[in-house]
Amino acid sequence: MEHKKAINVLLKIKKKYSLNSEEEEAILIAIGTLDCGSLINNRIKRIIKARKAKQDKDIQ
């Protein structure tokens, strides 16, 4: 499951059900963790792309 889809599911659960403060905090922490994971994946992809571009430039 993609990070964005998982975040959307968690947000729907948060809105749909009456959660106590501990459960709501757990949902928010999970959303934050997924969001950080998504940012890390994007950063890794940009780093790899930049390295490949540099290699291609060095070869030419």
Strand fraction band? under 5%
Overall geometric form: rod-shaped
* Main beta-sheet annotation: none
Q: Assembly state here?
A: single chain
Radius of gyration of CA atoms, rounded to a whole number: 18 Å
Main structural class: mainly alpha
For the termini, the CA-CA separation is 40 Å
Helix/strand order:
HH
State the helix count.
2
Count the E strands.
Answer: 0
Domain unit count: 1
- The percent of residues in helical segments reads over 70%
Given as residue ranges, the uncertain stretches (5+ residues, pLDDT < 50) are: none
Q: What number is the mean pLDDT?
A: 88
Secondary structure blueprint with pairings:
Blueprint: H1 3-16, H2 21-59
Characterization of this structure:
- The protein is an all-alpha fold and 60 residues long.
- It has one domain (3-59).
- 88% of the residues lie in helices and 0% in strands.
- It contains 2 helices and no strands.
- The longest helix is centred in the middle third of the chain and has 39 residues, at 21-59.
